[in-house]
Specification:
Number of strands: 9
Distance between the termini: 23 Å
Structural class: alpha/beta
Mean pLDDT: 91
Number of helices: 8
Radius of gyration: 17 Å
Order of helices and strands: EHEEHEHEHEHHEEEHH
Shape: globular
Largest sheet: 9 strands, mixed
Helix content: 25-40%
């Protein structure tokens, strides 16, 4: 692994409870011995069990934050979470591509765990154009169905869009007693399964998983091993407390 700590970037929302968004991502990065920096896309009004709304940061101000960081630093690995719409997402992705970012990972947060819906209608043509520019997308089952509507299963949808980029399908929302995540990459699929944990529901667990994948990639692990290690790290997070806020240093 690298002698010096790698530098990674999170582009996502601000959650006052620090269970999700940029605060959560930076905590995960720190636990992986990775230096994390962040760009704020929104200010949310929430705690771990209630979501009352948010204020979006204008995309021009998101770019101002990006500009000043990229004046001084290079980021090979960038995670994007909550963002206003696909138009803004493409604008940010194009900025990163032009800045020669090596790998862009998108965690498509379409709905808050407390029930607030961020995005309903997905422009499929725009979505495909974005997917072709990123390295990995990390949806849960419900998000996968929204990304590729039409009544087909989330796994079939994930395999379908994996011809554009790698897909890590999170299975924690299934009705099964086993949480099975599936990575679709280079025409192959890899399954990561674990029995569901009692009292394991945690605010921001998706953010923890995706940011752990990013951290492991930056540390030099390949995609399959990064996903495997992130799955294990997230399991520790889910079992760390009986409440909705988990511990990173479990």
């Amino acid at each position: 692994m690298n002698a010096e700590r790698p530098l990674v970037l999170s582009i996502a929302g601000f959650d006052p409870s620090a269970g999700a968004g940029i605060l959560s991502d930076c905590k995960v990065f720190e636990m992986h011995k990775v230096i994390g920096m962040s760009i704020c896309t929104s200010i949310t009004f929430q705690n771990e069990s209630k979501f009352e709304g948010l204020i979006w940061v204008d995309v021009s101000d998101v770019e101002r934050q990006l500009n000043i960081l990229f004046e001084k630093y290079e980021f090979d690995y960038v995670k994007i979470g909550l963002i206003k719409n696909l138009t803004d997402l493409e604008r940010v992705v194009d900025f990163l591509v032009n800045a020669k970012t090596n790998k862009i990972i998108w965690d498509p947060i379409l709905k808050a765990s407390a029930g607030f819906v961020f995005h309903k209608d997905i422009d499929q043509e725009l979505l495909v154009r974005i997917l072709k520019k990123i390295y990995l997308v990390v949806p849960n089952l419900k998000e996968m169905e929204l990304l590729n509507p039409g009544g087909i299963s989330a796994a079939v949808s994930a395999k379908k869009i994996s011809k554009y980029c790698n897909v890590f399908l999170k299975g924690g929302h299934s009705s099964s007693d086993v949480a099975e995540d599936i990575l679709f990459t280079e025409g192959k699929s890899y399954s990561f399964s674990q029995s569901k944990i009692a009292d394991g529901e945690k605010h921001g667990s998706g953010c923890v998983l995706s940011s752990s994948i990013v951290a492991n990639l930056s540390l030099g692990y390949d995609l399959v091993e990064s996903c495997r290690k992130a799955k294990k790290y997230t399991a520790g997070f889910l079992s760390s407390t009986n409440g909705l806020i988990g511990y990173q240093n479990y």
